[in-house]
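User: Hi! I'm working on a homework problem where we have to compare a predicted structure to a textbook description. Could you give me the structure for the chain below?
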Amino acid sequence: MAAGSVGAVDAAVQVLRAGGTAVDAAIAAAFAATVCEPGLASLAGGGFLMVRTATGEEVLHDFFVDAPGLGGPPGRPRLDTVTISFGGADQVFHAGSGSVAVPGTLDGLLHAHRRHGALPIADVIEPARRLAHDGWTVDETQHTVLLLLREILRLTPECAELYCDGADVPRAGAVLENQPLARTLRDIAGGHVSRFVDLAGVPALLNMVAAAGSTLTSRDLTAYRLVEREPLRAKHRGAVLATNPAPSFGGPILAEATRLLGEQGPVSDDAEGTARLIDALRGATEQEKRMRRRVPAAVKGTTHVSVVDGDGGLASLTQSNGSCSGVMVPGSGVQMNNVMGEEDLHPAGLHTAVPGLRIGSMMAPSLLDLPDGRTVALGSGGSERIRSALLGVIVGLVDRGQHADGSVEAPRRHWDGSGVQAEPPLDPDVRARLAELGPVTQWSARHLYFGGAHVVVRYPDGSVEAHGDSRRGGASAVVDL
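Assistant: Happy to help. Predicted structure tokens:
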């Protein structure tokens, strides 16, 4: 299995060794990520899980966030404005109580466990509970993420107490505990909490956000439903992709890009092959613009886990907490998302989404069947770069015969809507060819900007390889079952 942190991988390994399914392991990793990837994942965020059971059933679990406001008067929530610096480029974010959307992660993980789990939910949650209680070690990637989000994390005393040591966030090597979250996970494991709305701090949360003008209501929380969807399928040179369908558009964009590439034969890694890759991403970007007119879309901080079990079951799970809100569910150790406060996610303007509407997403947890019999679970974080990260992995596996590590670690090229962003190394001939398509920005080093693709590959003989993207502190493990 492969994921965005050692803690998430360890949780999944424990569950697989105990006899859990791929879904059990992915859920265990997702719970663990809410502890040790706190800038990216939360039980009050949202996400998607692509499943193929050992018997061949395929289903996409959509537990992303809804727009709030059911049963309440229209409002214009007060938002806290925070400026975040990304390598010298400043971007304004809106967080605080007025930014929260209706969360889906907790409801979704528990639903998926009821549908596909083999172990008791207490066993699946226990690794995450221990991480929260005993503490987890901050790595370089999580330090960087927390540093980027520092001003948001200091918006409320409860959040700052957990994630900010005085004026700063913990450095790599520090050990962080989250005792309130450990107690919350214990209550979930014991069956005392079966949905987000059951958390003891929810009434206080609703009062707190209402005071800030938020439209989030108790009806929003009780009406929230996970949706099971038929996966979207596309073909690329004999390989079959199963991915996240509409109303989200990360999957449809990825499917369109693979289709466009497959029309002209194998995609080489020379100048012409790289230009074809960018052309496909350009075409997919046009499709994104069309889809954005119909639904607001969330594209911010994400993390991913991919798992295959001993029976050949596959699980690919991507989750997000937006850019965080700085608002905690009182007493729970759970931080709310800020999806309703990010201007670029709502093309019609803030506070315009219809209550109850499922927000769209760039997340595209996927499965891939290759002509040679390999089966792959893959996905990525990285907002708009998800499509380029996953397309690069698919091309590496299908067109270039690479293994999981080579396909993930290969230099990335991304079309940002006006030009090409390129990781080193970049051959002069390739750069010259790309410059014919638009301005080329050559980065000096690999960077988490380009996403975090985590991939597992199962071979026809049952052997497995796994790789976590080093750009985002990825980790992986292969367990002898």
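For your comparison, note the following. The longest strand covers residues 46-52. The chain is about 35% helix and 20% strand. Good luck with the assignment!
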